[in-house]
Amino acid sequence: xxxxxxxxxxxxxxxxxxxxxxxxxxxxxxxxxxxxxxxxxxxxxxxxxxxxxxxxxxxxxxxxxxxxxxxxxxxxxxxxxxxxxxxxxxxxxxxxxxxxxxxxxxxxxxxxxxxxxxxxxxxxxxxxxxxxxxxxxxxxxxxxxxxxxxxxxxxxxxxxxxxxxxxxxxxxxxxxxxxxxxxxxxxxxxxxxxxxxxxxxxxxxxxxxxxxxxxxxxxxxxxxxxxxxxxxxxxxxxxxxxxxxxxxxxxxxxxxxxxxxxxxxxxxxxxxxxxxxxxxxxxxxxxxxxxxxxxxxxxxxxxxxxxxxxxxxxxxxxxxxxxxxxxxxxxxxxxx
Length: 336
Prior knowledge:
21% of the residues lie in helices and 41% in strands. The chain is of the alpha+beta class. The two termini are 25 Å apart. The protein has 7 helices and 19 strands. The protein has 2 domains: 26-214, outer membrane lipoprotein receptor (LolB), chain A, CATH 2.50.20; 221-333, Phosphorylase Kinase, domain 1, CATH 3.30.200. It has an 8-stranded antiparallel β-sheet with strand order 4-3-2-9-8-7-6-5.
């Protein structure tokens, strides 16, 4: 069951902590200078709707920077701010929150937390097709406007709906030349309420990125195959891998080892081609040789649900756009 608005407000802190940990990516890399203002590189494969498929790689291979206006209505009141975003075309990126536009009790703290969230925002908050084959199986696409302009660039606006079990739907503006997403809105599938509204106000391709601190992994991270080795020796504990998969999702054959300040974290991913579910586990904590009592908390934040707690001694965090029941079944199946 979707949480009430009051429950969302009370649990935003929990959800935020879980998402910060789950979205951890990126050690800082000082950007090098590129020729400012060069024309965009054409990433489109066929000049038609190929920009949709090419968008899977566009944000990783396109060099750009710009300022976006972000409005998130996950809670009441919503929050609105501006952020500077850039990418070096080599997999590194930066998101810097520069201005809070809505009243906030402590804007300095908000800016500091946003800096920690930048990898979460780039990888998971922002609309991005992640696997074209899975996406085409689970989503319907319809072009709704071919005559729009965002930040001075012509765009094609597309509506994107999940075929089953939808929690939200999207209206997305793509640059048909570079395949970059220039704007998107996410709407609640039940009420039509706007959940997120993100759009570039200014954008430069091939910019001078000097001074922007690019990130890739916040903590040292290595990727391993779920099916290709002895994971116990890699992690020094048995990482949790679910056997129950929510409808429409696939378990990816990769697991990340993340050396976080609170210990090694094992992260597995499920994807429907667009959205992801992340399950993170850490080495079990024992008290007098026995696991600590199991306890989990759940909260909704917009179309996201997050769970956090301990099961049979394992510190666990889960986040994704499926409800608490689906996430609980995933966690339970990982122990079977």
